[in-house]
Amino acid sequence: MLEQEASKTALGVALMRAAHQILDTPPLLFEDPLALALLGPDAEAMIRAHIARHQTLYGRGLRSHVCLRSRFTEDRLRQAEADRYVLVGAGLDTFALRQPDWAKGLRILEIDHPATQAKKREAIAKAGWAEPQNLAFAAADFTRESLADILGRQQIARHEKVFFSWLGVTMYLTEAEIDASLDAMAHASDHPSVSLTFKQPDRGQGDKAMRDLVASLGESYVSDFTPEAMAAKLTQHGFVNQEFLTPERATAEYFTPPRSDLTAPRRSGIVYATTA
User: In 3-state terms, what secondary structure has residue 8?
Assistant: First the structure.
């Protein structure tokens, strides 16, 4: 991503969530009624103009993954009864704007690149929405400061339950950067938890095509992990209780009975973990 540009992959993810709302058959895997409006008045026409691409087997699979990771994360957030919700690499996530009643007591912090964050706040204003009182933004240029630096300015109390969402980010980071961020999360309070995604090693032409696509957008993949390697890394940083959303578990929890449009992933790089 260029220094002054908003993330193109963040826009792509938002488009997939919006496409899910208008192309797939209810009940939806992930309800995000604000996704389309946040993208602006031309978003639906843009999606429908590329409907063939959205409806390929690969397109539906990618949409399923994007919606599943958000659904899984928000389900775990509700169960966690957290005090703070910190979205690292928030992109165009809409949770703070559509927060349900159970989330009203949360303090929500969105951390992202200044250009991406500025574009999102501009879109919120254009949609005529007010930024929720329990939402704060922290612009982050990780080439100049660390996640620990940013969290250190947030006055997080040791007793707070802090839930981190880290979706669609780790694959763009070096292993050293991932380690530093996990360490910052683990030490943010006495009760941290994290829901994150990770890229598994390439297997087949679909993985290669996605790698080539993101590289063409200037946001190349840097790291990948097997589930076993990610489990070891999380344990190394104190996140010893781990819940990997395996394809079998995803099928039982989110795709039974089967959905008419989307299918459960054949591989899933999604995990929720806590330190206690």
Answer: helix
